[in-house]
Amino acid sequence: MHQRGFTLIELLVVIAIIGMLSSIVLASVNSARAKARDVRKQADFKSISTALAFYYDKYASMPPNYVSGSQVCDGGPNQVQYDQLMTLLITDGFLGQIPRTPGGGTYCYYNYGANTPYGALMVTYLEAAPDTTTGISPSCRPWLAGQNWCDKSSTKAYCICNIY
Known about the structure:
By secondary structure, the chain is an alpha+beta fold.
């Protein structure tokens, strides 16, 4: 008597192979998504940096700190002040919309003032980038290790110093 179909062992081997292949594909997809979010963060910072330069050209200063002694962040406790800052740039026509960080995390702003090595600082953290003490170009890291989010510690911090 000749039986048709697959044996249980053959089915289990095929299911195991499919499972391994799908886990490899999913890992690749997740890595690609993280890289895409990093590219978006860098593009957003380029737009914000350009908007800040236009703002400086018009007003001869950078936007103020909306909370004394504290940065304002998208998604942080100072969300309202972050929105006010970005709305200021939008109202003047320097920015199209309020930048929101993709996939969680925050965008932060703090104005250290004119004639400092930091200027108006923008900070976020990248996901897929390797930890570095200098940051991904054109990131700035002006502080010594352990002093600030944009210090020379090995992190994924992406910091843009808009010096004026």
